[in-house]
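Dear support,

I submitted the protein below through the web form. The confirmation email said the job was done, but the results page showed an empty box. After a refresh the structure appeared. I'm attaching both so you can tell me whether what I see now is the final result or a partial one.
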Amino acid sequence: MGESLKDKVAIIGIGCTKFGELHEKSLQDLMVEASFAAYADAGIEPDRVEAAWLGTFSPGFGGGKASVTLADALRLYGKPITRVENYCATGTDAFRNACLAVAAGVYDVALVVGAEKLRDRPVRGLQREGTHPYLEAGSTPPGLFALAANRYFHRFGGDRRTLAKVAVKNHHNGALNPKAHFQMEVTEEQVLNAPLIAYPFGLYDCCPTTDGAAAVIICRADLARQFRDDPVYVKGIGLAVETGWPFFDPTFEYVGFPATTAAAAEAYRMAGIRHPAREISVAEVHDCFTWTEIANYEDLGFCRKGEGRYFIEEGRSALTGDLPVNPSGGLKSFGHPIGASGVRMLTEIVLQLRGQAGARQVKNAELGLVHNLGGPGSVACVVILGR
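What the results page shows now:
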């Protein structure tokens, strides 16, 4: 193993737009809004940034062309800008790459932006971007993840009421968040009686496609207190990639995602975490579907395999639980503009660690986790942040 990133990089500024159907704003409008909010939060001028990373899954949806989109939006001409795309882990992987450069001493201050416009194009049009004949024939993300959810219930028990508890929790948290796409509470009965999408998933079991952007500014850790008194430090990062089509792999068990387990193991090793359920204060995990959050509890080591249903049923992941998960409302309520989601999740954990999360503040937050799962379980990124 090479050198660790632990405590070599600090987050000194964050910014996030409201998420939702933002037809009146362009992709570049969202980038500008998030980035200038981050500049203001860090107390720096734009020219202090030496390099930037842009996480966007498909900038063509918003009229963008790779890194040029960010250069034009922010007038960052003459500076290195790298566009990163890695399924739904795009935002966190952009952050990871920026951290590697800053930790290596190549740059002192860098900007990471995640942005996406998904509501200007029908979901069916997005689906046709798939390159595998199985997708082109009509397979959908809800259908693929529903296969895994059904297998999980067959092996470990649980039912749609278990999933409904995740939806109720995350909508409750989202109702406390003024920037969330869905700021509304739902009941278990509403979730269970909603139209079915792909059994066992109903409408409220699926995250929405969304427009939005988020930004973070990072610097060398030894410079952090020149910018602010309460920097948040990067403690560990793990990225892991599995096959692009696990559902075609005869060894795939349909009850979890090996990429998450591997990414978490690397992040925990780097951060020195041995007992994640006891050491992590708060987590933002990838709840593209309600069942995925349950699988994440297990793959991230919050509980043992097969016990994720009890983790939600016993209230352990609630705001008042012993390990609150998705206090922002998660993808389920905050929304999921693919390239922006991971960066947005980082901003939530920074707010929690600063004690600035308002009504959704987790008490005594010392160590936070961000997790993204990309594609059909193909790639995962885990980031550990601390004070």
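Response: this is the final, complete result; the empty box was a page-load delay. Residues 137-208+232-386 form a domain with the Peroxisomal Thiolase; Chain A, domain 1 fold (CATH 3.40.47.10).
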